[in-house]
């Protein structure tokens, strides 16, 4: 029997619970906040990153999911409120799949009669796909939000998009400093493209953050008003309190985030991930949800995943491309995001 160490419990009423605990895994332990309807189906939330944390997801899910579902907000290995990663060699995709399997078994042991569903965002969507390949028999349904199955596609697509934009800006540049800057970007894009993507953390930040800002787009946001609201929300101390974070704890979680993300991004296997062919074995219901302008994973990633899910019956798989939205759908297109997830889980958890 898997041990679970409980930290805190509060009850709003007979059906609603809010409790947190640790689940032991190999050489570490994972933090889980369990909140929602104690009698409802279980959804495990898989955060992005790698290295992110689940605490702030509750800002969205509390209102539209917790009334009917029990949500396990999991912090993955070395992330959030989970123990700090002491061995970087264990920060790899297969270990995270193994860790998730321990979590699934632990929750099944505690709630044996409950269906378990997965809700994965960004890297969490990828982790969910990896888990479904090996262990789909333990899962009722899976919502893949802004996830990827082909890791090289978004990298090469971003390089090409930025090359086209930089060449256009270079042609229009009037002063020598601007010409030099766009020339430098073009030279660096060639260098990145020929690098082999073994040590990719720093180059990833250039491609996804620095260069888009200089070239007039955002890989993660399409709706400027929603982006502004998200920035303001990030300045609200009550927002952190609702997520269960002091500023000191948040700073610690962000340091963990950078460390875990750096290890993954400097790993050949992660950067060259391609499970497009492998996901054909999945037979359980899957929702694929992506923003129209999600350059972080590549604008055609969702369609590629959906088309590759050949083992899922057509009436059990859904593809939703959200207009005028990018990667951060929970804040960038909240209504469409929540409606798609709720209707999917409601259909497959009756």
From TrEMBL:
What is the top-level taxon of the source organism? Answer: Bacteria
Assigned GO CC terms = membrane
Report the residue ranges that make up the AB hydrolase-1 domain in this protein.
Answer: 41-329
Q: Which GO terms describe its molecular function?
A: peptidase activity
Q: Which UniProt keywords apply?
A: Hydrolase
Q: Note whether Hydrolase occurs among the keywords.
A: yes
Q: Which family does it belong to?
A: Belongs to the peptidase S33 family.
Per its record, how is this protein called by name?
Alpha/beta hydrolase fold protein
Q: Which organism is it from?
A: Galbibacter marinus
